């Protein structure tokens, strides 16, 4: 098998020798350059583990993570079976375990973990790390403070079930059922008690009582503790063992159900976190989801440190806490706590409580980071209960999910910004390319006509003088209009355009615009029609004048001399509608969707359309969109085209 396909697995435990095993597995993973996984199997005995063992387990977990292992946590009672199944599903090729070198006893020898794993996964390579302390170490179980073994409710329930079993057994005896049927009733009672009660002691007591009551009430001679049949002691023994085993199994199932329910709840939170984060696009919303999910899972306060910038580092801590939790914020936000958070930012590692770095801190500080970029730091108060390995694993998963979402959000923002920069650069390039040739034509005309006037003024007729002056004027007005369009377009694109709007009479704006249209308009018939009375519209008058000038100039350019150009204004549905109609050749349907694109020029050229930069109609769309209006083009009847734009109407007061 190639090295790239190797996958090394090591198991996490609270054993003192586990550190040695982890380091050996890490060296193997480094030598093979392969995947490295550290697996913790949470059994029902985990809650009975001493604080010393829990601390050692947390140390081993952090050590594995620092050595490059991926931490995984699963639940189950059969450790060897869980290891084998995980190895099979995760394509593990090598397993590193520990085993003692001490000589085993000849009698009552039990199989080691390595032997069990080897028997269930014969195809895996198993590396055994010898250690003399491995078999000498035992998990010290303890009873937490305030824990109860006896509950009045459990005693009452057990007595009620046991009495019910006696009554049912009496009924069975009255009906003539055999003693084997009566035995099953007591076994069933023990099974039910084991499922309902909180401790196995009730199952054990009821197993003994079941044997005694069965012997006392239903075996001849009745009401004595003796039996005529020689085989009854064996029956009693089998009954006791059967009741005890079934009760123990039922109790184990109940403990596993609690364990699976707890694991399922935490896993559901992780899945819910993933689903909620995927719906968020804003950085602050993603962080809010992360913090709320952490509080929901841990029922602890969370301190949030935002990243201001590289120079200033962390921002001030913000406290988020469940409503049911009271906490003194100042106790967890002194200078020492902040310095630990800054250390996490600088070193990109977790620190604080329950770690080996700044272990005197009151919070565990972890970073939300993707690769080398840190988005924020969170602090989890650890004054009371420590985190379990599974909780720690889920926290890392939630922080990782949040980091991926924030990285994606950052990348999307950078991509959008890059696209905008590229668009602006493209606009500049198009502007330069578009006007470089078009500026040369009018400038050449102006300089040529001016040169003729300077050199031949005395020999030219009055009519020739007037024509040259008109050409110079037309070309200069065309240049002024081009410059106005360029300034407006660049203002919209770089965001520097400040649009101040006010209510204006549309008739005055149109009249002012017609005063600045091309002098070639004299070759056309211009008319203005207003169907309603005074029409007020909310607008920036200078920009709307520019729109009307561009639309009228466009109609002049693409219609033959003598054509009629009509400007109409009316009010419809709370909007002022302005139409510029001509009776020229019209616009093809295929071009109607393109005419408002920047730098697009129609193939239908007339007159001096060689000067068309394609800015006019594209600029009109920008201006009208900024006014929250619409602009469109449709066919005029019987021929020609109509350009129509809308503005928000204003009511005319009686004092105006």
Automatic annotation (TrEMBL):
Keyword hit for Secreted: no
Entries under InterPro entries matching the protein: GAF-like_dom_sf, HATPase_C_sf, HATPase_dom, His_kinase_dom, HisK_dim/P_dom, HisK_dim/P_sf, Histidine_kinase_KdpD, KdpD_sf
EC number of the protein: 2.7.13.3
GO MF annotation list: ATP binding; phosphorelay sensor kinase activity
GO CC terms of this entry: plasma membrane
Protein topology in the membrane: Multi-pass membrane protein
Enzyme class: transferase
Main location (coarse class): membrane
Annotated ranges, domain Histidine kinase: 434-651
Keywords: ATP-binding, Kinase, Membrane, Nucleotide-binding, Phosphoprotein, Transferase, Transmembrane, Transmembrane helix, Two-component regulatory system
Subcellular location: Membrane
Matching CDD domains: HATPase (cd00075), HisKA (cd00082), USP_KdpD-like (cd01987)
Sequence intervals crossing the membrane: 149-168, 200-219, 231-253
Reactions catalysed: ATP + protein L-histidine = ADP + protein N-phospho-L-histidine
SMART domains per the UniProt record, alphabetical: HATPase_c, HisKA
PANTHER family per the UniProt record, alphabetical: SENSOR PROTEIN KDPD
Annotated protein name in UniProt: histidine kinase
Taxonomic source organism: Parasporobacterium paucivorans DSM 15970
